[in-house]
Amino acid sequence: MVFKNIICPACGAACDDIQVEFGEEKIEAKNLCKMGNAKFKAIISSRRLRQPLIKEGGKLMAAAWDEALEKAADILVSAKRPLLFMGSETSCEAHEVGLMIGEYLGAIVDSNTTIGNGPTAMGIQESGKVGATEGQKKNRGDLVVYWGTNPLESMPRQMSRYGVFPRGYWTKHGRFDRTIITVDPRKTPTATASDLHVQLKPNSDYELISALLTLLHGKIPHHSVEEITGVPIPVMENMLDLMKHCNLGSISVGLGLSSSLGKHRNVEIAMNFVKELNNYSKFTFGILRGHCNVAGFSQIASYMYGYPFGLDFTRGYPRYNPGEFTTVDVLREKDVDAAFVMCTDLLNQIPTDCAAYLAEIPLIYLDTSPCPTMVVSDIVLPGIIDAMECDGTFYRLDDVAVHVEPFTDSPFEFTKSNEDTLKQLFAKIKEKRNHTDFSPFYI
Ligand code: SF4
């Protein structure tokens, strides 16, 4: 059977034009990039986790669903300060239940933002954000600056669907109506495809933006900035001239900006630069968020508790202090005594000492396929693939909410979705505490 307009749950672009032919252990999907194609193949993969597992004598053994859920609840209830890591490859509805479990247990609740675009979220909190949807950029945008990102490889259809090639209402000639600037120390495929590649030295983003702001204020920056950034002042002037004289420009940033020296201060000054550019033309700032629905967790956590990631509920109310209550920090300081990881391979994304501690403490893992995090887990719960096997809400990279519809049902009788699994787990946790009348802080 053929299904149309399916949303791809692989990356933040959330492409909504996927055509899927599905049936009898066979799947063919059209309009996907390679990353998306691999994600859709996962639904019939022989490697897929299809039953709960419990570690016995150092080996993961098949177990009954109720037993696995019971043991998972035991681990979380008996921990003094558990870590709940809500990976981004699931729906906002699942994130919401996870956050409520975190509040109930007095846990740390975090997500992929903490490892990826956390500094960008912090920069937004410092200086606000002038944003636009990808649709506005498609229809009006005639200048795109890719700063510290390489979408041709990391988000392959972003340029063809929104940023560069599509014909929009006021950009009828597609690529020919747009100027592309890439700011990157590396000569990436995106930089090669751009009209201007500003090849700055690594870790000099803050200095380059400061120099651009100085030029915008009508002054010439100190000549030492050429040495520090590796970018000649005439190139900066050329870049600024293009930015001042466009109709609608956007800076789309990636981890290259928020992970280089300066971190959230880079993002803060970039936002201030964008605000001042609006004195000359319309200019916006966007984040190319790589993981599917990584923006969703930040949205849900912010509307429920006021903070976008790294929430600490130890005192019964939410606290936020990146660097203290964030995943890497609580693992490095051994400040948590159990963990629940869902829909991401956390072990692969954190420093070795944190990974070693994560492997030591009782660990529950919920996901669809085996990975290093699974190997060190004590309980494994099979996951459901959102947008294919159950519906839910995702936030696209530009913070637009999209409702995803499945084209098949959950392959399991014991759960309908990751949200359902978390609700079942929450019910068991409340039973164990003999406390069923919990009402969350945000209600
Ligand atoms: S760009 Fe992202 S959302 Fe679009 S098809 Fe590729 S992986 Fe899927």
TrEMBL record:
EC number(s) given by UniProt: 1.2.7.12
Molecular function (Gene Ontology), one example: formylmethanofuran dehydrogenase activity
Source superkingdom: Archaea
SUPFAM superfamilies: Formate dehydrogenase/DMSO reductase, domains 1-3
Keywords attached to this entry: Oxidoreductase
Keyword ATP-binding among record annotations: no
Gene3D superfamilies, alphabetized: 3.30.200.210, 3.40.50.740, Dimethylsulfoxide Reductase, domain 2 (3.40.228.10)
Name of the featured protein: Formylmethanofuran dehydrogenase subunit B
Domain Molybdopterin oxidoreductase positions: 48-413
Signal peptide bounds: none
Keyword Nucleotide-binding: no
